[in-house]
Amino acid sequence: QVQLQESGGGSVQSGGSLRLSCAASTYIYTTYYSMGWFRQAPGKEREVVAAFRRSSRQTYYADSVKGRFTISRDNADDTLYLQMNNLKPDDTAMYYCAADRYSCSVFPVRGDFWGQGTQVTVSS
After folding, report:
1. SS3 for 41-110, per residue?
2. CA distance linking residue 85 with residue 30, whole number of Å
3. Burial class (CB in 10 A: 0-12, 13-18, 19+), 5
4. Going by C-beta distance under 8 Å and a sequence separation of 6 or more, which residues neighbour residue 1?
5. Residue 119 in 3-state DSSP?
6. In whole angstroms, what is the distance from residue 7 CA to residue 117 CA?
7. What is the pLDDT along the chain (124 residues), one digit of tens a residue?
8. Which DSSP symbol is given to 29?
9. How far apart are CA 11 and CA 123, in angstroms?
């Protein structure tokens, strides 16, 4: 069964750091996969935070996180990471990992696979 499992969320103070992990089944990792991190805060729409497309090595970051967040993948353990530095209260949200096995976009637009989410809370 294909799964995405997020971990690494928690509560930090403003300016702190967290690293989110998304463990994924190797089934997902074709030559053309794309994966991304999304977040949704209470009362707000879900938004893409960062994304990566394997075939083009293309990455995307939302303007609100550029220079603070880094998306990466560890080939050794089939895990996608989101390093989050200089966290701000506005980063507080549930963070989700998503993937498409075959994608023409840097974004997993179909959202073939989703994780259950991990909560990030940043206090001022």
Report:
1. CCCCCCEEEEEEECCCCEEEECCCCCCCEEEEEECCCCEEEEEECCCCHHHCEEEEEEEECCCCCCCCCC
2. 30
3. middle
4. 25
5. strand
6. 8
7. 668 999 999 999 999 999 999 998 888 888 889 999 999 999 999 999 999 998 888 999 999 999 999 999 887 778 999 999 999 999 999 999 999 999 989 999 888 999 999 999 999 9
8. -
9. 8
For residue 21, the SS3 value is: strand
Q: Which two tokens stand for residue 112?
A: 């073939």
CA distance 20 to 97: 9
pLDDT value of residue 1? 67
